Amino acid sequence: MDKEVKTTTIKTSQKQVVQYFDYSLLAIVIFLVCFGLVMLYSTSSYSAQIKFNDSMYYFKRQAVFSAISLIGMLIVSKIDYHWYVKISKFIYVVSFVLMILVLTPLGIEAYGARRWIRLPFGQQMQPSELTKLAIIIFIPVLICKVGKHIRDYKVLGKIFLWGAAAAGGVFFFTDNLSTAIIVLGMVCVMLFVAHPKTAPFVGLAAVGCVLAALAVRFLDAMMDTSGDFRLRRILVWLHPEEYADEGGYQVMQGLYAIGSGGFFGKGLGNSAQKMIIPEVQNDMILSIVCEELGVFGAIVILTLFGMLLYRLVFIAQNAPDLYGSLIVTGIFAHIAIQVILNVAVVLNLIPTTGITLPFISYGGTSILFLMAEMGLALGVSRQIRFEE
């Protein structure tokens, strides 16, 4: 009996604390970026040749931004994420200042929307992307400060107002409703995770869905001649065939691309619809993936996103503290909501929003801040410790 006790003691004393780093998340992100570059070249080569006389124009720009972003992600992953507590409110304020600059002469209008600001060396930036990052690091600070008082609905409401203010800034300063919805959704998910009760959130979500359905029915019946572009998008969504020559053209052509691809697709580079869909390298790139690689290609992409979200859940569950867990929760919410919205738009399940597919669609600002978020998640994973 004494020998058994001694043996157990020796085994216990040999336990070692192992530092963790999520190499699986890193591998998935790199694979998504590389896959995105391949699909971007295949999708945009024709339009780039027509527009810039260079079939690799979009590919080269995105490749440069991706390489810079990858280096930035690795640098961010080495920073202790607790340092962001000190600068979180500053970044929140800066994001507002940059959004206000969109209304000044520094603002740039593109594709019928004024959402960018001019940077040196001919570059441009979309300030709403910084707002997403600001929410990810600032709202968790507010939640951690109130602690158990998060149970109080007044305290919960005050934190929500900070997020609602950011979403309102995105909407009013950059006229970007879809990104405002993403920002507000991220805040709601973080509050949902931090709050001990589930029922109130489920009830509010159910009421919101019912009100949205009633609003769509009302608009369909009453606003047939409206000139507001958002209302017109709803009408196009409900009756795409009737508006095929106007706002429904892009959606209809995207659906034709998905339908013509079959299960295994026409083959990489063999898309016909990419020659006629406007700005296909942005929010409609998934339709060309379905045409060239078929439903199988779409399943592969969605599986990769599922694996990415699973790794984020794993990191959030094992984070050493609440702040780290909520940071990764915010990143999870951002990726999940944006992917869901983009897929829903391509399949015409919701009105057109202009939301891009993360890591796949063209966009320098988007890939830069997405990789910064991945760096934050990897930084949290670096702080995880396991006993071995």
Summary tags:
two-stranded antiparallel ribbon; 388 residues; 3-stranded antiparallel beta sheet; disordered N terminus; mainly alpha
Outline:
The chain is mainly alpha-helical and 388 residues long. The protein has helices at 2-13, 23-52, 57-77, 84-101, 127-146, 153-174, 177-194, 199-222, 229-238, 249-261, 285-318, 322-346, 364-382; strands spanning 17-19, 107-110, 113-118, 124-125, 385-387.
Describe it.
The protein is mainly α. 69% of the residues lie in helices and 5% in strands. It contains 13 helices and five strands. The strands form two sheets. It has a three-stranded antiparallel sheet, with helices on one face. Strand 2 and strand 3 form a beta hairpin. Helix 3 runs parallel beside helix 13. The longest helix is centred in the C-terminal third of the chain and has 34 residues. It starts with a helix and ends with a strand. The N terminus is likely disordered.
What is the count of β-strands?
5
Radius of gyration: 23 Å
Look at the structure and give the mean pLDDT: 84
N-to-C order of helices and strands = HEHHHEEEHHHHHHHHHE
N-to-C span = 26 Å
Helix content: 55-70%
Shape: globular
Binned strand content? under 5%
Overall structural class, as computed from helix and strand content, comes to mainly alpha
Strand order of the largest sheet: 2-3-4
Main sheet specs: 3 strands, antiparallel
Which parts are unreliable, with pLDDT below 50 for 5 consecutive residues or more?
1-13
- What is the count of helical runs? 13
